[in-house]
Structure formats: structure tokens, C-alpha cells
Amino acid sequence: MLRRHGIKWSQTLSSIVADRFIGLLTLGFLILAGMPFLISRIHDNVLLFAVAAIVAAAYFGAIVLMMLNRLSARATAGLPARIMQFAALLEAPLLARAGRKALFGSAIVVHLLTIAASYALAIGLDAGLSALDAFVLVPLVIMAAAVPLSIGGWGIREGAMVGALGLVGIASDKALAISILLGLGTLIVGVIGGAVWLLAPERAAYDAEPDDTAPPLHQR
Predict the structure, then answer these.
(1) pLDDT for 137
(2) Band of residue 179 on the pLDDT scale cut at 50, 70, 90
(3) Domain residues for 158?
(4) How far apart are CA 171 and CA 127, in angstroms?
(5) Residue 60: Cβ-neighbour burial (10 angstroms; 0-12, 13-18, 19+)
(6) Helix, strand or coil for residue 171?
(7) 3-class SS at 194?
(8) Is the residue at 39 inside a domain?
């Protein structure tokens, strides 16, 4: 759909990566919000340090990317053009006043819906998971599943869910069931979205011809 509006493939793919990065930043915000409660639940200092390090690295990376366009051309001469383009795409939503609240608010709501779904599944399975524990632990599972090592996070999400919920005494079989049902629910939603896309009139009018004359997004 972006291509139909004359945006290059490189710009389109970079914007998707930027969207995922913003999702990671909002996930880090939720983890930081639950950190005071997480400390009392994780007794392994190495694991706690790893969680804090990942969140800190995400925010440090965002700050570095936002600073790239403010450096001199000589300082950034050795960097690939794709990195500079991605920095510009990421900087726009982070600094823009218009729509920024809606952008980050919607990203947080998506994570909260996943937490709520996990909590609802835990109630249905009588797993004994409290709402506070779900808010504190499920973001860690989401973060683990975001690692691009499997298709859709399958396998990684299940291991992370068993480990995370095990911190508060949830049995491994129930934690595994929560994760599998959560994955199946996400798959069903994805199938519905795919059906909508297949029937959308925008798809019928899709123009796959490349248009390399379109200006970069950050110049619009």
C-alpha cells in the first residue's frame, strides 16, 4: 500500500523496522514500570541484570540513532546510507508533536492487550496468576518472543513463559498451556487480518511497478 503512494521499497521496509523498534521502546517502558515488583520476584541477580541491560541497550540505541542526524557529515561519512535513513525515520515519530501520543499510546495498548489475554487465559486454566504478576512477568515473555530466532516466536515464547511464571510458582504445564493458547489466539487474529487484506479493494488496485522518483519520507 505504501508502494502505491510512490514510496521506495527501502523506505517501506525501514518504516516497518522503525515501527517494531518503537514497539520495543514501549515494551521497555512497561518493564521499567514493573521493575520494582520484578526485583522481589527474581532472586537471580544475573537474570535481573540481563533484563535491565536489554532495556538500557534499547533506549541507548534510540538515543544514538536520534543523534546521528545532528552530527557533522564528516562524522557520519563512514556510516551506510541505510542507517542514516533509518535514523531519520525513527527520529520523526519520536520527536514529532502531532500524533506522538497516539503512536506510543497505541503501542502500549497492544502490549497491555497481550498481558490481559495472558491473564484471562490464566484465569480460565485456574493457574493462580495475579493481575500484578501478569503485568510484571508477561512483558519479559513478549521481549523474549521478539528475538528473531523462530517463526512467530514459537518455542521461545513457551520457554520464556514457563520460566517467567515459574518465578511465582505457576506450574510448568499450565504456563505452557497459557503460552500455546496465546499463540493460537494470535494466529487466529492474524488469519482474520489476512482475510481482510485479501478482500481489500486496495490490494486489487496494487501497483507493483517500482517508482524510484519518490522523495525519502523524512523530506516530506
Answers:
(1) 92
(2) very high
(3) 3-207
(4) 8
(5) exposed
(6) coil
(7) helix
(8) yes
